[in-house]
Design a protein that fits this description.
The chain has about 160 residues and is mainly beta. It is about 10% helix and about 50% strand.
Amino acid sequence: MAVEIERKFLVVDDGWRRTADGGRVLRQAYVTHDPRASVRVRLSDDRAWLTLKSGRAGIVRDEFEYEISLADAEDMLDRLCTGPVIEKTRYRVPHGGRIWEVDVFAGRANGLVLAEIELRAPDEAFDLPDWVGREVTADPRFRNSAIALVSMPDLVA
């Protein structure tokens, strides 16, 4: 079992683009999501994954991820997933000796830009880039499973 420890922030400007990689387009949707656990199908280029995540205990949760065939993932998106498909481009951005992931959303959440950093421990120190703003780790509106169900104006209200 893997453990995910991550913090999430709103992005306030495009300064991250100076050092970002070329990005990769992700499409994902949820088979199920509730406070106890979520099951996600994600596709990127010619690869796909099925990910199971436990509910959060602060910024920590259990995560199980399995690579699956692209055909199976497409079938799951079409027939098993609830809610709309999330479309975003994920960029890897080095800062302070770490790699941040910046997600630029399209579709219903067009205009939303979030930055995440994965940690090895909940109390691990890290340097905040000047292009991040308010932390939204604990705000359930900014979980991907919730973003799939709302539009951008609802997120910034």
